[in-house]
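Morning. Coffee machine broken again, so started the prediction first thing and wrote up yesterday's gels while waiting. Chain of 199 residues, entered below exactly as on the submission form.
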Amino acid sequence: MEASGVIDKILADANAQAEKIQAEADQKQAAEQKDLESQLEQFKKETAKLAQNAAEDKKAQMLAAARMDIAKQHLAEKAKLLDEVFSKAKEQVLKMPDDQYRQLMKKLMLKAEETGDEEVILDINEKRIDDEFIKDVNRELGPGFKGNLRLSEEKQPIEAGFILRRGKIKNNVSLGVLLQTAREELEADLARELFSDSK
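Came back before lunch.
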């Protein structure tokens, strides 16, 4: 084979090899491009889904916050009403006719006493509960109780109601404590209502 023929063959082989390499490179690039496009499409889908979820979460958070604000306003209104209700309740007890007041105190005292020999501490201005009232309560205690309640010389500014004391143990049945206990129970109900409404 002539030198020119050898050169032509080498060039032809080299050209064929180059074309093969180029074809493989083009094929690989096309496959990579397709893979990249597929990944980009998947990324777009996931991004869109995340954006939608984020938007839904944001919407849910805004709705929850709005419901909570409404519930808080509702609770504040109820608390204001409670202020008025308990203020009137206190006023009604303080202005209660003597007979009704004594009946109420008698009922409370019979329920509150534990041993029947406690001291009864009254408000500094209490005039409706006296020794005769205490004797009547002692008679009500009946069999099985000591029936030995007695008025204490000590007075406290409790407005209405009483405190039963036996040694260091006190049972506070003053008007303020009674109203506060009732209010706390109602406020606990309101708080439960607030959190159930906000869900």
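The first strand starts at residue 119 and ends at 123. Going to sketch it on the whiteboard this afternoon.
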